[in-house]
Every structure is written in C-alpha cells, then in structure tokens.
Amino acid sequence: METLENLKKELNNEYETTRSFIANFPSDKNNFKPHDKSMQIMPLATHIVEIFSWPEMIFKTDKLDFAAGDYKPTFLDTKKELVEKMESDFIKGKNALENATEEDLDKRWTMNNGDVVLMDFNKYEAIRHALNQITHHRAQLGVYYRMNDIPLPGSYGPSADTGF
C-alpha cells in the first residue's frame, strides 16, 4: 500500500473518533479548564478540529512561522460552529491528500519561530506529527470530559463509558 493511502485512512479514522468526542461536547462549559496553565475546553476542541486541515497547509507551504503570524487560531463560541469547522477542515485535509503525490511527501517543511527552527520534517513527517497532535489533544479533551462527568467515547477500543 502507498504512503498516501495509509495517511488517508488514518486521517479518516482520526476524524471518525474525533467526531464522536465532539458529539459529546458540553455547550455550557466553553471556559472550563482544569488548571491555570491549561487551555479552556472550547479553544482546545477548536484546535483539535482545525488540525484536520493541516495536510492542506503543509502541502501548500514550506514552513509555518509563528513569529510571522502564519498561525492564526480560530475562535468559536458554539458546538454547532465546532462541528461545522471539523467538517470543513476534514474535507480540506482529505482533499489535500487526494491531490498529493508520493513525491510531494518528500519535500521539506519546517515549523519556525522567526529564525529558530522548532521542527524540520519532510512533509510526510509533518503530516504524521499533525495526526499525532490530534490524538494528543483529544486525550486532553478526554480528561476534561472525565472531570465534568461527560461520557467518553472509545478511541482505539471501548472506554469505561462504552463498555465492551
């Protein structure tokens, strides 16, 4: 199987899992955060869903530079907006993978803060890193849910709330 086919399958699997998490998003707790250093729940969930469009950004650019303002986080207020953002960003990421070639994955891509290179990847590695970020931040969201007695869907198997 080709690398792109694997990435498409993984993006789709992460989307399906994330969709079940977002379906349980608590509309009345947008500002909840478990610690002063933690993100609030709505910006965390927003960040998770916006990562689905990162394959498009990675294929269209050679770098993301925080100091240059290349990353502009999205600010949402409602669960409806969150669902809509997830749907549109998933389509962007999926389309980017559909239109890419295996050779595109070998091109370089960096994440910078001005002159400081934070990460230096080929585009395959950058997309894999983005997929890992979805998993990482979704696990954080799961902790927020648990702290608020919100049922957790299974991710890679059943959760204590979904049984076996």
Automatic annotation (TrEMBL):
SUPFAM superfamilies: DinB/YfiT-like putative metalloenzymes
Residues reported in the UniProt entry to bind a divalent metal cation: 47, 137
InterPro entries according to UniProt: DinB (IPR007837), DinB/YfiT-like (IPR034660)
GO molecular function: metal ion binding
Lineage top rank: taxon: Bacteria
Keywords: Metal-binding
Sequence similarity: Belongs to the DinB family.
Protein's name in the database: DinB family protein
Native species: Halpernia frigidisoli
